[in-house]
Amino acid sequence: MKQKVTLKQIAKELDVSISTVSKALKDSVEISLDTRQKVKAFAKLYNYKPNNIALSLKNRKTKTIGVIIPEIVHHFFTTVIGGVEKVANEKGYNVIICSSNNSFDKEVINLEMLASGSADGFILSVAKETQQKKDYHHIEETMSQGMPVVLFDRIIDELVCDKVIIDDGKGAQTATNHLLSLGCKKIAIITTVDYISVGKLRTNGYLRALRAYDITAREDYILKIEDIDNCESEISSFLKDKEVDAIFAVNELFAVTAARVLHEQGKKVPDDVSIVGFTDGILSKHFIPSLTTISQHGEEMGIRAAKLLIDKLEGEDDVPEEYKTVIIDTSLIQRQSTKK
Amino acid sequence: MKQKVTLKQIAKELDVSISTVSKALKDSVEISLDTRQKVKAFAKLYNYKPNNIALSLKNRKTKTIGVIIPEIVHHFFTTVIGGVEKVANEKGYNVIICSSNNSFDKEVINLEMLASGSADGFILSVAKETQQKKDYHHIEETMSQGMPVVLFDRIIDELVCDKVIIDDGKGAQTATNHLLSLGCKKIAIITTVDYISVGKLRTNGYLRALRAYDITAREDYILKIEDIDNCESEISSFLKDKEVDAIFAVNELFAVTAARVLHEQGKKVPDDVSIVGFTDGILSKHFIPSLTTISQHGEEMGIRAAKLLIDKLEGEDDVPEEYKTVIIDTSLIQRQSTKK
DNA sequence: TAACCTTACGAAAACGTTTGCGTGTGGATA
DNA sequence: TATCCACACGCAAACGTTTTCGTAAGGTTA
After folding, report:
1. Strand D-proximal residues, CB under 7 Å?
2. Taking the model in full, what pTM does it have?
3. Beta carbons within 10 angstroms of residue A266's beta carbon
4. Which residues span the membrane (chains A, B) (predicted)?
5. What's the pLDDT tens digit per position in A257-316?
6. Integer distance in angstroms from CA B33 to C1' D4?
7. For residues A245 and A185, what is the distance between their CA atoms, to the nearest angstrom?
8. DSSP string of B184-234?
């Protein structure tokens, strides 16, 4: 088991100084051609690779981006990561991914861990618990220490930093409008509780769309789900004997669960009830019927977020701080769950 | 913007030496109670956090685990990561995740990057391209430098290291047996090309199960798919006018695509054709009908892999090398896509 | 031959820690 | 008063780099 070879070892072996080796490897003119070649040959032979840790310490930057997301087993977030990785790799950055598991404490721990030397900046979507507690001191602190943060999707309005979001309200409005334009009149919404920012925004979009069509929203057409894992029973009783002709679900799971419930209740999608979901994931694409949905373009979000972050990271320190909020356009993907 | 505070700054501010500060923060008896309290108060005030990079350099270990997977947008792999994170966090390890995107080159780059100081050991599932090329020098090199590697799922038999796998053959056999026990006689398999190790193993399991039932396998009941993204057309023509009464698909995507194709061809699942898939992902659970499938217990795999790795990492250096292969039991999850 | 200039290399500091050991100060002991 | 011993702290090395600056050797010039 040969250990990793260091400059020091090469120097000793070749009977020159460490600095000579370092310079030779960098093709410095300070070093004679002869020595340079000798050193490089030796380094190659022993497969020398500079130690990243030492470089990070010296340069005071790590060339890594920290990504913290609420859930790792989640299609949308992984597509975002895909986008981040794409540009990070192009620009020579490494990506560290941590999941907060929607726990405030774990988010804090992860952020502090990465902030103490492991990453130069962060791309993050906050945990559910954090949105509930409204405690953002860890993020503020990270920023105040000079580490740029880009928030995406589940953002925090109060925080002054770069953000990448979709227009959730507009997306929901588009979805609802689509249903309205198909002639649906009794449109229910299955959404989350209000403290989830994106849920609330989508609910508002739904309401706006109805208003624009002069339809009064009905309280009993709105279902706010707290416990996502047990949504099926809630949706089932919600839909029981209800004469809706369309459902707008703010995420994929709610959409397919609604479809399943309708199926069990003997109703056909889209003939009896049309469904529009949110997020273009695996489920929407492969479900039968495939689901009409609003695509959030996760990869694009990741790309934009990474670009914003790297710009900040590589920008001059003396330019005045300026923060952008990028809004990614959503798009309606029409499939089989809404009738033509 | 207050920069990160270091021992040096605290020392200067308090007019003591760096070592005094360091020791005081560690509650060393060498330092007077008075000084200790003063230092700790100051450190707390300025929110001092030791710099991980410096610690890594000094201790020559990073307390991070590198995970390299073929695809990040993939339910099974993310569940494995979930498991890894679970035990890593318990044991105070950080997790760095990189995806190779199934590219050999990117796998090499990522591994070398992480190996040069960013991680102490690796958990990895090799890229498709790597399996094809059979070039494992990067992994061998990493191990020869003293960094432990745990392979999972898509492993490499030739490599001597810890491994965590499922018994793909046995799982496939179980799946096929289930179909046979339901009375199915004409069982097709939709699988991958042979160089994907798990695909081949599952195909073999299917063949074994048939043999045990004295059923001769038919070439025209075996579909090997090369281009996963366009599997629908292949499956469609494969199933066209074929009188099968059951399908065993080696992954979720093939299973639901088969279901979709059958649906379009006017056949009912499970009444006309039963389907068993492999991997218990989102799709299987929520599809209508929900899919009977073989669960790989991804999280459990991640847990075991992480434990193996951390054992190696924290074990004595002088114990003789000994490598384990953990085989996770698969289980059959019966749902609606196979008739009772 | 003295002064100077290249050439080719080495010494050392710096990044932020930890830790073994050396040492000055003061009080207690003889 | 001389000796000794805790006590409380500082020094310096080490981890692996990069880079600035210093310098010895040898050659060139006047």
Report:
1. A 4, 6-8, 18-19, 22-23, 25-26, 30, 48-51, 54-55, 57-58; B 15-20, 29-35, 54, 57-58, 60
2. 0.91
3. 7
4. none
5. 999 999 999 999 999 999 999 999 999 999 999 999 999 999 999 999 999 999 999 987
6. 25
7. 7
8. ---EEEEEE-TTSHHHHHHHHHHHHHHHHTT----GGGEEEES-GGGHHHH
